[in-house]
Amino acid sequence: MRIKYLSLLACALLSASVIADIAVVVHPSNANAVSADDLNRLFLGRTSSFADGSKATPLNLAEGAAARDEFDSKVLSRSSSQLKAYWSKLVFTGKGTPPKELADDAAVKAAVAADPTAVGYISSSSVDGSVKVVANF
Length: 137
Hints:
The protein is an alpha/beta fold. It has helices at 2-18, 36-43, 66-74, 80-93, 105-114; strands at 22-26, 57-61, 100-102, 118-123, 132-136. The chain has one domain: Periplasmic binding protein-like II (D-Maltodextrin-Binding Protein, domain 2), CATH 3.40.190. A five-stranded mixed sheet has the order 3-2-4-1-5, sandwiched between helices. It is globular.
């Protein structure tokens, strides 16, 4: 019985460490600093520009992606169901459009690398030289 308990405890600890940190990424030419508050306003549609006034295009991962759940929780302080309700209301009233959703880290990375206005997030383990990390959560 003790071995089963220790095995279960080890699995729980390992699964908690599997959740990757989130890296917020922009095009390498983007010189803007981005705070958690800036990200909150961008990804909730309250602003459409970086601090310097240049256009910002937020990109979300698809619903259900582990990195999206982490981002929603850590940066936006909301659950996926809260965000779905938030965007449904804004879309219904014509007051907003949610960020474009992309399938996976590779798609977000490619879109950010191709668009100097884009800002997205991916698992830290997916970062490479094609994008610039401006924040980690």
